[in-house]
TrEMBL record:
Residues engaged in binding substrate: 116, 154, 327
Entry keyword Hydrolase: yes
SUPFAM superfamilies linked to this entry: (Trans)glycosidases, Class I glutamine amidotransferase-like
Domain Beta-galactosidase trimerisation: 409-614
GO cellular component: beta-galactosidase complex
Record protein name field: Beta-galactosidase
Family matches, as InterPro entries: Beta_galactosidase_C (IPR013739), Beta_galactosidase_Trimer (IPR013738), Class_I_gatase-like (IPR029062), GH (IPR017853), Glyco_hydro_42 (IPR003476), Glyco_hydro_42_N (IPR013529), Glyco_hydro_b (IPR013780)
Lineage, broadest ranks: Bacteria, Bacillati, Bacillota, Bacilli, Lactobacillales
Catalytic residue list: 155 (proton donor), 319 (nucleophile)
Glycoside hydrolase family 42 N-terminal domain sequence ranges: 17-397
Family listed: Belongs to the glycosyl hydrolase 42 family.
Organism: Alkalibacterium thalassium
Amino acid sequence: MDRIRVTDDKRLLHGGDYNPDQWLDYPDILEEDVKLMKKAHTNTFSIGIFAWAALEPEEGVYHFEWLDQVIERIASIDGRFILATPSGARPAWMSKNHPEVLRVDSLRRKQLHGARHNHCFSSPYYRRKTQEMNTLLAERYGDHPALLMWHISNEFGGECHCDLCQENFRAWLKNKYDNDLDKLNHAWWGPFWSHTITEWDQIESPSPIGESAVHGMNLDWRRFVSYQTIDFYKNEIVPLRERTPDIPITTNFMSDNPEFVPFTALDYSQFAKEVDVISWDAYPAWHNDQEDTPTLASRVAFLNDHFYNMKHQPFLLMESTPSLVNWHDVNKAKRPGMHFLSSMQMLAHGSDSVLYFQWRKSRGSSEKFHGAVVDHDRSSENRVFKEVAQLGQAMEALSDHVVGYQRKADVGILYDVESEWALKDAQGFGLKTKHYGETLQKHYQAFWERNIAVDILSKEDDLEHYKILLIPMLYMVSEETATKLQAYVKNGGTLVGTYITGLVDESDLTYLGGWYGPLKEMFGIEPTETDTFYPSDRNHVSYKGQSYEVRDYATLMNMAGAETLGSYEEDFYKGTSAVTRNEYHNGQTYYIGARLDDAFHQAFYGELIDALGLKAPLDLRHKRGVSVQAREAEGRQTIFIMNFTEEMQAIEIMEDVTDLQTHSPLSGTLDLAPYEVRVVEKVVS
Ligand code: GLA
Ligand code: GLA
Ligand code: GLA
């Protein structure tokens, strides 16, 4: 297995968002920055992210000298810069002189100038202007040897409902439905409440004061918003591709917060095709009072595996905090050691960087209390700075054992944002208990606890080489997806579906005549009803002699060839099937009809892990809360052994490995202190 290098730098990247434009009146601070950067063992800085007002203070008047200077300073310490295009925030003159750049919200209110991430994606002026700005940036800095990468705008998201966007939405629909309103009305189930459309200009984007009940349209609107956002991005990068074809391009993706699940405002599986490098901003709420640290760690792992697999290559952690954020309900400081551990976890799951928001804490405005490497004290002697420097040193030593190393997994979990859009919109089930992202994370956790690597996949990914594939709550299963899943199982795959899997097609129209044929055939069952629970309702499933708790959902089913592995213990469906297995051609399928607890997942997936011979990267014994993850290239595995508990952990290592800190062999008992990480190397064939 080769390395996949996503940048031309051989080092692990350490550094982050640097906003010198906030400090142009403080030359001593700018000089101090470069000294501190060295001291912090940092090497990479994202600059210009929101710098439009500093770059073009008046329309057509440009100032690049300050940026030239900043870049020379970074280069003087052998640093690299990730140059951002400034379109994430506009200067006030632009909103005033060209109000078409302002967004219109779903209530049709034109927004005032303010905040950020608030431009219209259709605005011809803004599209032209971003190209002009990006041309100037590419011409001035494109050949600079310290230029590492382009960072386009910032955290794309949001939507605009202005007249131009309405026109673009209609044009997109015409194209999608072959200019045929009958096709559109069928997909949107038009006759419902007399919503049949007879002329294209009757169509208006979804609105709380207008159309909100047509699910097919809501779904198409989400698809359009994604398309339009990606199209805006593609427009932005034209001058960069022309002038700097060898400089990779990224934009920073994110998670849905505060839930910390996959991002749902855009279809990242489509966006990923247009970027060279995936990067994302990770802000888990460590030490929160809702879940224990290992559970949160497994959710962080899930998201990393999601971003890794968007291009099946190493990604960059573009933003994280060395200490705390300012926008969680409670902004708790990372305990000593957690910064090191959580950063190592990102590397373990495929990141080739640990970058922060931000380098230096702002003096004013809304992020002045957001954690940063350099605090208001301007000191390198505080706890946070020292932990950052310590991490930087460790990253320098590890670079050659990590950069470009791949991840590999035999387990796949399918995440589909289109299905999530439709499921969220579905008026049915429990309106507050769908939790698609969290449900996937729960299933994932059973593998994480056993150190079994998992790939988070999209429906377009190749499935063949996975030994097991999970499609929990995959509400929308198109004919195409069903055919693909069938082929996977026919070839010997193991497929696990659950309650609410496979209820609608790609237009969010339900299947008629019982469960969708190919699914029924594969699973050998026919779900007949989904019972939805009140929060205090419980049922139980007896499975292989144990009883497991059910919350929220229980599917009732008829058997059509499958065998029953678990049955409901209570209520009017007591004794009927809850968990089933079916053999289908060379493969097998399992259906988990109820939302079962973690203990069930551990038992159920534990048996499958053993039966399918799935292996952890290292043969070792430990208690819950230790995670072992590996990256691999050139016949070597770099394995991270991470203690996510607040206790000492004694770990039995049954194989010979080399400790990458001491470079001496390691086997037998390894004692890990709370939050400690050990990185070891194993030679593989
Ligand atoms: C009301 C309406 C119906 C239908 C039902 C759904 O009774 O009159 O059209 O929407 O609610 O419960
Ligand atoms: C929050 C903030 C946003 C953004 C994300 C982090 O919602 O308000 O500005 O930073 O989280 O990805
Ligand atoms: C996001 C944004 C940053 C900053 C951080 C704060 O990730 O991209 O500009 O606002 O959130 O956490």
